[in-house]
Specification:
The structure is a homodimer.
Chain A (H helix, E strand, L loop, with lengths): L1 E5 L4 H13 L3 E5 L10 H6 L7 E3 L5 E2 L2 H9 L9 H31 L10 H19 L11 H10 L13 H11 L10
Parallel strand pairs in A: 1-2
Antiparallel strand pairs in A: 1-3, 3-4
């Protein structure tokens, strides 16, 4: 059976849990408290030298890191990855956009607000990060005003961008102006087999 | 013919140019001066709403963005993408690592040092970013001490991580302690069809 090393409040981990639920694939969950350094122990660093969750352990003992690579691995050959070459590239385009232009500006301000003390020096980063987060939602809005999903049908691209987008309020980003993004969030949440981020 | 919108001093663009050279694929290069706002014009934003190079225009007029997604698109089905599912996932793992844990801490300090004025306020970011860049090279070093390449044979994973790694000195990051990374840089540069970043 697959083993997922994860932290339940992580959107990166939620991507994998949501996909596994929609695939109907059973797995063992090992919860690690990232706030207590559980991903920086020698034992965990032997599993993932980059010290991050989610990390997936395959049945043969191989470890796979990076949430979007794990999602791709699990979804390849299923209806969640486009069947054509250009479709796959478009899905990956949105997945790289997620890691470079969205996650640092939505997930990181959420982390600062939700997990660091109210007097954290990192609060000075918030305004700049939130502005870039709104820019990322602007890019998504322009696409979603014309398309139901990000890369053809509902796919891994929607799963990975949904994870932190649906918690944008916790990052201090108001999605009210982003009508198409909000309609897309509702469409994603209505997909068969959808599960919430937290039990 | 493919058209590549690019800026020659960009490592992200170089990933695509290096792969196209090794594939022997002809293309038209359109140089854009990102320092003069050429990627923020309405004309270019219609091609890539995220306003970044490289952007690839396919023969049918479709535009593809995100350097690593472009690289994947061009390399799929060739010797530069592993033929097995786990190999592809491992290649993608390093490609997502590149965008999240390497590029902001190697490419960005390089950009600050090379393209912004000496009195730029962004110089205050350098020490923190360079420390994270060294951490990323530490992760690569541990892997490359045991393997010749990042994901099996020479692949897209090596191409995308080579692009900014071989210019780490310009980011103020000294690779002297990273023996295995330096040996890998030499192996990548010795691959058939290799071309330098700048003509």
């Amino acid at each position: 059976m697959l083993t997922l090393y994860d932290y339940l409040d992580s959107g990166n981990g939620y991507k994998v849990r949501l996909l596994l639920a929609q695939l109907g694939t059973p797995y063992k969950l090992v919860e690690l408290d990232i706030m207590q350094g559980a991903t920086r122990t020698p034992e965990f660093l032997a599993k993932n030298p980059n010290g991050r969750i989610p990390t997936l352990e395959l049945e043969d003992g191989t470890f796979l890191a990076e949430s979007n690579a794990i999602v791709w691995y699990l979804a390849e050959g299923t209806r969640f990855v486009p069947a054509d070459r250009l479709g796959r590239a478009k899905a990956l385009q949105w997945m790289f956009f997620e890691q470079y232009s969205h996650e640092p500006y939505v997930a990181t301000p959420r982390f600062i607000l939700r997990h660091l003390p109210a007097d954290s020096a990192r609060r000075t980063e918030l305004a700049t990060r939130q502005a870039q987060g709104r820019a990322a939602f602007g890019v998504m809005e322009a696409h979603l005003a014309k398309h139901d999903f990000l890369a053809g049908n509902y796919s891994v691209a929607d799963i990975v961008l949904y994870a932190y987008s649906h918690r944008a309020d916790e990052a201090g980003i108001d999605l009210t102006p982003f009508l198409a993004v909000r309609a897309w969030l509702a469409r994603v949440a209505a997909q068969p087999g959808h599960v919430p981020m937290l039990p």
